[in-house]
Amino acid sequence: MELLSVRDLNVGFFIEEKFALAVRDVSFSVKKGETLCIVGESGCGKTVTSLSILRLIPPNGRIVKGNIHFKEKDLTRLSEEQMRDIRGKEISMIFQEPLTSLNPVFTIKDQIAEAIIVHENVLKQEITDRCITLLKEVGIPEPEKRLYDYPHQLSGGQRQRVMIAIALACNPSLIIADEPTTALDVTVQAQILNLFKELQERYKISLLYITHDLSVVAQIADKVCVMYSGIIVEEGSVENIFYRPAHPYTRGLLDSLPKRAHKKQKLKSIPGVVPDLLSRPKGCPFYPRCSLTKQVCIEKIPNFKELEDGHRVRCHILG
Ligand SMILES: Nc1ncnc2c1ncn2[C@@H]1O[C@H](COP(=O)(O)OP(=O)(O)OP(=O)(O)O)[C@@H](O)[C@H]1O
Ligand SMILES: [Mg+2]
Predict the structure, then answer these.
(1) What is the distance in A from the centroid of ligand 1 to the CA of 280?
(2) Beta partners for 208?
(3) Pocket of ligand 1 (CB under 6 A)
(4) pLDDT digit of tens for each residue in the chain (319 aa)?
(5) Whose CA is nearest to atom 1 of ligand 1?
(6) Whose CA is nearest to atom 9 of ligand 1?
(7) What ligand 1 atom has the least distance to the C-alpha of 23?
(8) SS3 sequence, 115-168?
(9) Domain coordinates of the chain in residue numbers?
(10) What dotted CATH number matches 2-90+172-313?
(11) Long-range pairs for 252-255: beta carbons < 8 A, 24 or more residues apart
């Protein structure tokens, strides 16, 4: 059974009196206990997709089409009040920069407690106990003391652990993590990824994990959606994407991973840049950077082709 199922999501923004789609016909689903990674370059629509699920897109943005089913409810149709019950309780979100997400003038305890109080009636002593348990859960040593620290007294990795504790506070069934380890160094990043995996095994939480980094995807994903310029260009299991990549963009991303390049060889990069929202080409958004482009690519966006079970690609030429 799918826990979250996004169908034909289209999200746009009013920019300089024009309306442009940032996310186009995006569909994916996440089962209980599963990790789906959305990967793609800056500006491809990862954050807009994740904010749309919680209906938190900026005021100049609109969901113009699509459904977001979560536990039999269509989130696009709920009232603001119903959404407030879901945010932070059934679905939690973790953002990239823990320093800006945590409030500098409140203690760690205050901030975890707030996440609990919003959704539940609990006694004061019970809250302290729950905060301590949560900090233990995310691997913060001496939680009884750290509870009264302010965010600046913790390291970057510890702050991200606190963010995860806040996300876990009300036992959510889905966590959306938008580049949660991007600001951390590689060893701390690996620890946080392991923490996600442990918690997921323990609580069977589903994870929608957003990143631009394929090496993170390899460590954590069950399924992967590769996004480019607002559309999903390829979707499949982590094995499909790493061993049998079909889209020229996915192949380009894999070629630019350090491990694959020969030691003394320069790292490959995909030439060109992602087109900006108001000047996206009519056809396949990747054609200006693709080495396989033919006339058909310039004329229309390719539909999905099914390659094998659950492995789908949007390319006129390959697949
Ligand atoms: N409030 C807004 N008004 C206008 N355009 C916006 C707005 N928010 C996002 N966009 C545009 O939507 C597109 C997708 O942005 P999004 O933030 O989802 O990218 P992203 O994939 O998360 O990138 P990054 O890796 O840099 O976080 C971008 O072109 C961005 O400029
Ligand atoms: Mg983003």
Answers:
(1) 14
(2) 36, 176
(3) 13, 15, 22, 40, 42-48, 58, 60-61, 212, 277
(4) 899 999 999 999 998 888 999 999 999 999 999 999 999 999 999 999 999 999 999 999 999 999 999 998 999 999 999 999 999 899 999 987 655 778 999 999 999 999 999 888 888 889 999 999 999 999 999 999 999 999 999 998 899 999 999 999 999 999 999 998 887 888 889 999 999 999 999 999 999 999 999 999 999 999 999 999 999 999 999 999 999 999 999 999 999 887 654 556 666 677 776 667 887 878 999 999 999 999 999 999 999 999 988 999 999 998 6
(5) 58
(6) 48
(7) 14
(8) HHHHHCCCCHHHHHHHHHHHHHHCCCCCHHHHCCCCHHHCCHHHHHHHHHHHHH
(9) 2-90+172-313, 101-171
(10) 3.40.50.300
(11) 252/289, 253/39, 253/214, 253/226, 254/214
* Sequence-separated (6 or more) residues with CB below 8 Å from residue 42: 212, 274
CA distance 131 to 109: 6
Indicate the residue type of 152: H
Q: Is the pTM of this model over 0.90?
A: yes
Tokens representing 158 are 């510890």
